[in-house]
Design brief:
With about 230 residues, this protein is an alpha/beta fold. It is built from 9 helices and 9 strands. It is about 40% helix and about 20% strand. The chain has a 9-stranded mixed β-sheet with strand order 7-8-6-5-4-3-2-1-9. The chain is globular, with a radius of gyration of 17 Å. Bound molecules: pyridoxal-5'-phosphate.
């Protein structure tokens, strides 16, 4: 018996049911296992049960675990990214979810150019306008998207990400997911080398079912897979 396996089975059912409730296909939602504070062994166990994508919120943790997680696992940078640390992960992550400033985008662009790659990113939107959170506000998002689109030839904007406020009732945050989906949809038809909106990264352990109902294509789930985190 494995707790991680049991949890993943349960979450898989919840994702399927949420998709059924809103007429979406299961394969249109990617489960990203958030492995912050977890060991490489725990990451590898989740991978052995079918996880293909893992999310980390600290550059250091990606560096520490990267070589100990073999295979073609995709790494997602989901946390606040400092400009001076972009160089450590630019060739390791498949998607950076947390672009919240042009300055950060410009650094990602520069490092991507050095590696001869196009970096896929999401724009992080602080949909609820919480002072404690990173991300551009809803009004600033359009300007940031335009600035990144116009100034960063080695970046491809793949969509949007948000972290909803913590709440006991996920219905409270449905409105923020819906607003983000509205913004997302307004860019869906613009496709060029630097913009291809495909991903809407929203929903965590407490609210991923509502996020799926509102159009999430990526959910980032940690606690519901691995249990409560211990930050000691
Ligand atoms: C930690 C974290 C998650 C996962 O949160 P859980 O509540 O443990 O599922 C998702 N997204 C981001 C950006 C995180 O930092």
């Amino acid at each position: 018996m494995s707790l991680i396996h049991d949890n993943l089975n349960h979450i898989e059912n919840q994702i399927k049911e949420a998709c059924e409730r809103c007429g979406r296909k299961r394969e249109d939602v990617l489960l990203i296992a958030v492995t912050k504070t977890r060991t490489a062994a725990e990451v590898n166990e989740a991978v052995s049960w079918g996880i293909t994508d893992v999310g980390e919120n600290k550059v250091q943790e990606i560096m520490d675990k990267y070589d100990d997680v073999p295979g073609d696992v995709k790494w997602h940078m989901i946390g606040h990214l400092q400009t001076n640390k972009v160089k450590f992960i630019i060739d390791k992550v498949s998607l950076i979810h947390s672009v919240d400033k042009l300055k950060l985008a410009e650094e990602i662009d520069k490092r991507a150019r050095e590696h001869g790659i196009i970096a896929d990113v999401l724009i992080e939107v602080n949909a609820a306008g919480e002072a404690s959170k990173f991300g551009t506000d809803l009004e600033g998002a359009r300007q940031l998207i335009e600035d990144v689109h116009n100034n960063c030839p080695n970046i491809r904007i793949k969509g949007l990400m948000t972290i909803a406020p913590i709440t006991d009732n996920p219905e409270d945050v449905r409105i923020y997911f819906r607003q983000l989906k509205g913004l997302f949809d307004s860019y869906k038809d613009i496709k060029d080398n630097n913009m291809d909106f495909e991903h809407l990264s929203m929903g965590m352990s407490g609210d991923f079912e509502v996020a799926i109902e509102e159009g999430a294509t990526m959910v980032r789930v940690g606690t519901a897979i691995f249990g409560a985190r211990n930050y000691n």
